[in-house]
Amino acid sequence: MELPRFEKDVSSKEVAQALGDAGCAVIEQLVDDELMDRVASEVEPFVESTPFGVDDFMGKKTRRTGSLIARSSSFHELALHPVVVDAVKDVICETASSMQIHLTQIIDISPDSQAQLVHRDQWAWDFFPFPSEWEVEVSTMWALTDFTEENGATRVIPGSHLWEDKLRPPYEETIPAEMPRGSVLLYAGSTYHGGGANKADTRRTGVNVDYSASFLRQEENQYLACPPDVAATLDPDLAKMIGYSRGSYALGCFGDLQDPMEAVNVYK
């Protein structure tokens, strides 16, 4: 199966359909260089101070820099891009009442980095065996630099979201999600994928934003990354997306059954 590819005028419904059919899709040059320049400028100091990973999975020559919502105001435009968010919502909200931002990070793969183990992102929930008809997560990878096979483009296996769980597909079964800067790769939490090996002499930098069903714990603790005084400076839609909202009727309240945005509004 081929990796579905779309131009920037694609509808969110078409992208959601591709995620259902193939488990992954690329929208080429969805945003312009000016936005990516701003994001790159804002995050670079934090990337430079981030240590490399401690094991092969995290990448011993890979930096993973989080807290992007607090660190980069320009990043907000990626996190809330309507085509991406609406497509993700169509997928996740087939089985959940609402969705949230699960993780934000820069993944910066240096030259000579080895390929990552092929895996499913939804294994983050302690390898819980979600029903095969449930899609509780959609990940996105924005190209902050061009993604090529040589420099370690994310590798995916289209159609693998329909496979059995806890498999260990070999690297050779994956294909590189090559794409120019400003493009975005979307892939389901059940899609087998992994970071590629960087055989180039330049870094491969991607902006990783993952979304999940609101009834699940987030991988990135947004209440520490963006405490209420920081959340008060955000677009209210973004604050709610990172968890300052009820995940359902009985999830996410505080105090005397108060709405989380009441805690945020104290700082305005």
Structure, explained:
The protein has 268 residues and is an alpha+beta fold. The protein folds into two domains: 5-220, Jelly Rolls (Sandwich), CATH 2.60.120; 221-268, no CATH class. It contains nine helices and ten strands. It has helices at residues 12-22, 33-48, 68-71, 75-79, 82-92, 222-225, 228-231, 236-241, 260-265; strands at 5-6, 24-27, 62-65, 99-109, 137-143, 155-156, 175-176, 184-188, 193-194, 204-213. A seven-stranded mixed beta sheet has the order 1-2-8-5-10-4-3. Helix 1 (12-22) packs across helix 5.
Write the SSE topology.
Blueprint: E1 5-6, H1 12-22, E2 24-27, H2 33-48, E3 62-65, H3 68-71, H4 75-79, H5 82-92, E4 99-109, E5 137-143, E6 155-156, E7 175-176, E8 184-188, E9 193-194, E10 204-213, H6 222-225, H7 228-231, H8 236-241, H9 260-265
Helix pairs in contact: 1-5
